[in-house]
Amino acid sequence: MSNKRTEISELGEFGLIDHLNSQVRIKNTSTIKGIGDDAAVIEAGDHVKVVTTDLLLEGVHFDLSYAPLTHVGFKAVAVNVSDVAAMNAIPKQITVSIALSNRFSVEAVDALYEGINAACEHYGVDLVGGDTTASRGGLIISVTAIGEAKKEQLSYRSGAKVNDILCVTGDLGAALVGLQILEREKQVYLANPDMKPDLEKYTVVTSRQLKPDARMDIIHELRDLGVVPTSMMDVSDGLASEIFHICKASQVGATIYEDKLPIDKQTFDTAVELNLDPITCVLNGGEDYELLFTIDQKDFAKLEKHPDIHFIGHITKPEEGKYLVTKSGTAVQLKAQGWKHF
Amino acid sequence: MSNKRTEISELGEFGLIDHLNSQVRIKNTSTIKGIGDDAAVIEAGDHVKVVTTDLLLEGVHFDLSYAPLTHVGFKAVAVNVSDVAAMNAIPKQITVSIALSNRFSVEAVDALYEGINAACEHYGVDLVGGDTTASRGGLIISVTAIGEAKKEQLSYRSGAKVNDILCVTGDLGAALVGLQILEREKQVYLANPDMKPDLEKYTVVTSRQLKPDARMDIIHELRDLGVVPTSMMDVSDGLASEIFHICKASQVGATIYEDKLPIDKQTFDTAVELNLDPITCVLNGGEDYELLFTIDQKDFAKLEKHPDIHFIGHITKPEEGKYLVTKSGTAVQLKAQGWKHF
């Protein structure tokens, strides 16, 4: 090692990942897709396996002062299932590794696994392995999910074509707004432990933050309707950031329309209460775990009436850039300001 | 959650794992084997995939005051490859997730990945995914490895039969003795930072601790010789503990012979220097990552002359128990004292 010291913050999370990935070389013919999508793709005889993994740390990804352990367990599974969904695959197996300090009792571990097992039940996945170890710090959870698909059913980030329709499921921004509420109530509680946090009017946004649901329902419906998205990813870092990823991987541009962006009423009202711009929450809020995908125009009629799929824009030529058309009709350049961990 | 608080130490690591696993229910037909072996087994068309995962924490599994980051990266891959080998499968893909604090520079991350990439090259596996995040504490590494085998080639822990021969590769106890030396020199250094650690005469044992090699060479040789072990696992917790696992899973007993146990001369001499009983190091030292397996007697002739496979005993009926026959001819009951993390 040389004596030069470069801070990770100089590269940023995505820069560091790009830097590390540039050194990776694929050797096995069974590796169909390595790093660079929501999940890796591996040959498996008559079908393919997709593999994805997430590492969740107390104090970085969850705060046990307001996140119940059962929800943390559920979410740890759900975020990985969401990455499998984003490949248009069906999750089948997960492994869960945990590191615990002696702060945690067996009852606490049971609460965590109650959530993990509930998520396994909900998504139809089998918990097939893992590792359990001591931690000197907080709780650490590492989940790997494995899913299945026929090769021709997969949706990569790289398949979007000019004139495809950009679709997003559910509504966006709720998880970010929920996090702000939970953080605010935590500060209130820390300042005065006799104060009871008043969370009743915020259940939509807080539960989206604490216990998001991967959109496997949409994946199954798309199959039933015979629609294979031309590209797809899940919205974990924020809509704008994900659109950038799809545009980069597919070498296309995109235009989206402010008046088409889905936002829940409670999310909107709470954002305003918190002095946050609701549209900024929709564009840059992370952790919604909705699906962002593109479809060929020929498939539009099949999805047109779906109550939970929103058509927010379309794919353009790469030189046309990435734009948001505001309600007033002005086209403003999209900026990708996803969640930064570094 | 009730108000009862049970300490994890009351159950122990294996007790906690058993407790959690008792709640797991397998739902998918593609899950051939879930928790309970060195790796899970998943149906994959004409073959099967094996999946294993390990979570490694700074301060628990490695100490950066003496473990170079390149070695830590190599070892993180090797220990997972070893679990794939223990199923008699060939590793093909890995995912690597890391959590880093700002203590780590880009150059430090590069050193870690130099080791990870070197191990990928050495074992012929592809790095296909992972997660990179910030940590508030030390370095965390989570690796998942995926391997391939034909279903009939797999060696489970549960296949040992009465009269099978117990085999072990390489030599044992070195990694534990190496750890003791590294810890001793660390204390010397901490007491007097001007003292240069004197590690030159201990390279065998220290390099076994710092950069163990998974025995894929043996797996390939067994294939070439047409030998499928009736049961197998890798020696990560200690020989005695692993024999207990095989006996429990296979519902058999075992007798091993002290004079057949393989120990390297430097390991022996260093153990004596450290006032450790060399045989105790062989029986209970962890992290050697050698392979322990059983073969049918008909296969003995094929392996008899192998320089690195040792025939340490045989499988008996369950009611005959688990015994070590000492050099003096006394049979003493084996005790499983594997490494305890809790």
Automatic annotation (TrEMBL), chains A, B:
Its EC number is 2.7.4.16. Mg(2+) 1 binds at T53, D54, D131. Pathway: Cofactor biosynthesis; thiamine diphosphate biosynthesis; thiamine diphosphate from thiamine phosphate: step 1/1. Mg(2+) 2 binds at D54, D83. InterPro entries: PurM-like_C_dom, PurM-like_C_sf, PurM-like_N, PurM-like_N_sf, ThiL-like. Mg(2+) 3 binds at D38, D83, D234. Keywords: ATP-binding, Kinase, Magnesium, Metal-binding, Nucleotide-binding, Thiamine biosynthesis, Transferase. Mg(2+) 4 binds at D38, T52, D83. The keyword ATP-binding applies. GO terms for biological process: thiamine biosynthetic process; thiamine diphosphate biosynthetic process. GO terms for molecular function: ATP binding; magnesium ion binding; thiamine-phosphate kinase activity. It comes from the Bacteria. Substrate binds at H61, E287, W339. Mg(2+) 5 binds at D237. Residues 36-148 form the PurM-like N-terminal domain. It catalyses: thiamine phosphate + ATP = thiamine diphosphate + ADP. Residues 164-320 form the PurM-like C-terminal domain. ATP binds at Y113, G130, D131, R157, S236. The keyword Metal-binding applies. Belongs to the thiamine-monophosphate kinase family. Reaction mechanism of ThiL seems to utilize a direct, inline transfer of the gamma-phosphate of ATP to TMP rather than a phosphorylated enzyme intermediate. Catalyzes the ATP-dependent phosphorylation of thiamine-monophosphate (TMP) to form thiamine-pyrophosphate (TPP), the active form of vitamin B1. NCBIfam families: thiL. This is Thiamine-monophosphate kinase. It comes from Algoriphagus lacus. The lineage of its organism: Bacteria, Pseudomonadati, Bacteroidota, Cytophagia, Cytophagales.
